[in-house]
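Bug report

Summary: structure tokens for Solute carrier family 15 member 1-like differ between web form and batch submission.
Environment: batch mode, default settings.
Steps: 1) Submit the sequence below via batch. 2) Compare with the web form result.

Sequence submitted:
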Amino acid sequence: MAGKTKRNALLYVCGYPLSIFFIVVNEFCERFSYYGMRAVLVLYFKYFLQWDEDLATSIYHTFVALCYLTPILGAIVADSWLGKFKTIVYLSIVYTIGQVAMAVSAVHDITDSNRDGTPDNMTFHVALSMVGLFLIALGTGGIKPCVAAFGGDQFSEHQDKQRRTFFSVFYLCINGGSLLSTIITPILRGQECGIYSQQKCYSLAFGVPAALMVVALVVFIVGSGMYYKAEPEGNIMLDVCKCIGFAINNRYRHRSNQYPRRQHWMDWAEEKYDKLLIAQIKMVLKVLFLYIPLPMFWTLFDQKGSRWTLQATTMNGYFGKLVIQPDQMQIFNPILILTLVPIMDSVIYPLIKKCGFNFTPLKRMTVGMFLAAMAFVCAALVQVEIDVSRKRYVFDKYFTFETERIIVSVGSPGMTQAIFLKRKSRQTLLIPSVISDEWLLVSDNEFKDTFVNGMNMPVNVTTSAVDLGLIDFLAIFSFLMIRTKFSLLSGSQSCEYIKDFGFGGSYTFFIPSTFVFGPDCQDSITVVEDIEPNSVHMALQIPQYFFITAGEVMFSVTGLEFSYSQAPSNMKAVLQAGWLFTVAIGNFIVLIVAEIAKLPNKWAEYILFASLLVLVCIIFSTMAYFYTYIDPSEIEDQFSKKVDEDEDDKDKKKSVIIENNFVIHLAGQFI
């Protein structure tokens, strides 16, 4: 009664509780924070922490999996102990600390003692970022099942229309936050910032999402006095788990043949639990059984944030005068979702129905899985094109040797030396003008540009990003991401070099011994293109994004709709937890398959994942063929009627017993 009074006392604006405006703003800021951080995460691993692509992908998917495991914990805590409001506040604080930790971990100047733009103590940055990601996973996952439900609590029973509108706006905020953050944070990452040296600004790319999370927390707390806060009433998932556990244990204790078999193994819980609850659990288990093949879809789907983003780093992002960053390609997903959902609902599905085809939810999900597999076939074809363009370049520009030991002879009379090469790597041999001096063999760094000073005097090299300082004779200095301009300084003399470098290219700049400062000094510098600028255009990724998003609309949206239609009214949370669990398992499968397969070619890995999903798609379609659709409300009504009838029978029996006792009592009096 007290809870009802509190809800009726809420402030209303245009028929809506004022409290929901705080919740909507909170959700927008939180989703911006999460998706903004996640958009640049795999590139942070590769270019800032300098991990290889496999390790970057593994840690990325481990993080995503944790984000989808922790909602179960958040729901239990909210429903059983703290309530939704306190759970959201406490875990949002944890979430905010995690985002701040990520922003601090990306400040390279903290450990850059020699001020060359590269952190000297990478352990500090790795440790801080891992702590930050764990706290973010705990926070974002923990509040995920609470915020939408807390918003729904603000409406009274007669406000069904307003509640539906709220959920529409709520999910619009999710997609809006995702879309804007995926556009903005890669732009922030592409900026240059730093105290002593200018580098790609991952700290700003993580800092803005951290600031948005602070705003989300503050806004939510400001509305505290306006919320209806329902008391925790216990979590249905715990009841379900206890009932299932009792049934399994009871069946094990009565495993002997002397005990009669029961129709369903859950019937062994009848000694302790209500038959209606057991029937409801049976319905849920029937749907959860269909969930078994579903993680494979998420295995492919979530790689758009890892493998596909890494693939985009090897492609040309120039769209006319507009430059698209590799991590910005993910914007096609929310854009296509907002486009395809109304098209599917208003055009495609009605058209299929008019053609007389019974396009059931399970059939839609099967098609969605197949479309996701086709997306990875497209990704494989794009990867083949990338590999072909790079191999062609390597064969044209580099000598390729089958042996690790080669003999090099120079000059007349000749100078001969044995050179030992590293397998499966590109190296450059520097031979001084005085060939009797030391020869240098250096490894070409895929991510860095290199200066080599061939002059008999040191020169100072300065770029817009970093001051490299003095480079001595035949000294080699590698650095990250030079742009279009650098300066050579020696005393009062200077030389500016300006060049429009290609997208994704890597270069070695050789200052010859004959170099002379002057107006034409730029022409004296020899430039070697270590890695050709990306020639395969990012636009080729659009088809794979189209297929994966179309698959998501048919699989994910339909899957949730199907699950809710097949579950009892009080078991929606159980199915939601099961659905999120399939996402977590799917991300773990990425780690397992990639680790076991160890395929040398990325295109082969894409084909492997596509093949696995097609196989799972066949299994799922077979399971769906034998599935019988049910109406949970009808089954619940049948049990309710049966319970009422049993109660009536008990009352009648009780009445007969009373009457008999009365007769006996009267007879006793007459005796």
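Above is the batch result. After comparison, the two runs are identical; trailing whitespace caused the diff. Residues 632-670 form the longest helix (39 residues). Residues 405-531 form one domain.
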